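CORE FACILITY INTAKE
Project code: CF-77B
Contact: R.S. (postdoc)
Sample description: multi-component assembly, two entities in total
Requested service: structural model of the whole complex
Turnaround: standard
Below are the sequence entries exactly as provided by the requester. Do not edit them.
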Amino acid sequence: MVPLWMYLVVAAGLFSIGLFGVLTRRNAIAILMSIELMLNAVNINLVAFWRYNTPVDLSGQAFAAFVFVVAAAEAAVGLALIISIYRKRRSVIAEEVNMLKW
Amino acid sequence: MELTVESVVFLLLSAITLGGGLLVVSTRNLFHAGLYLMLSLLGVAGLFVLLAAPFLAGVQVVVYIGAIAILIILAVMLTPSVTQMPAIFNRNWALNLILAVLFFALLISVVSPALDDLGVDNWSANFTEDSPAAVPADSIVQLGQDLVDPDKYMLPFEVASVLLMAALIGAVLLVAPGKVGDEGEDR
């Protein structure tokens, strides 16, 4: 089978790509998409460790299921926030939402 | 790594996942970025199948691709940008690129046997396991039972339901127009 570290490298790569997207994209929805990429990388890690280390005990899959739930809730609320901001300011560029900035 | 069918499939799915991710963070058109996100999530679902977790693969397709990514595309369509073609990266993109690459190198140094092959004493386990024990045949049944077992994951399960209800109510409250004649503008 494929050794475990290859799955972990794929997950690390996906996480780094998401990290770059979160830090660099200006559009708030693109930032949210990059956050979803990072959460998926975490899920790959969880399931890979479950498969290779403890395939009999299903805690890894349960943990991944809860990550799904948290990601869904966070995406819903984040998108609601973005739509609400868009209504007020007609723009979803993250840099322009700066009223609370120093 | 020998050239088995499984390793070829793994390389293909990894290429789809990582390629889709790269396209998500670099496309100008947000709708395309949403579609590339769906492609990347499909690659992740394939990786779950390869990891003998078919239930999670199904959940990934139905929940992530079929709900979250579609919600994201809906939001993209509800928030068109009024200015034409703004820059997609902010001012610090070079620094952020260097940071992301350095972070990736840091993760690789811990996770892969690359450092160990170079002779550096890598204190963490190298995760070179490649013949794991078999998954029990009733793993999905066991997952379902674990999620409602009071000694296992019933409490996080119920808390997750409360979390979803809070997110649902919160999202509706955030976008509902306040009174009649408020600025709840839709196109």
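Facility notes:
- The domain at 4-96 of chain A is CATH 1.10.287.3510 (Helix Hairpins).
- The mean pLDDT of chain A is 92.
Invoice: internal transfer
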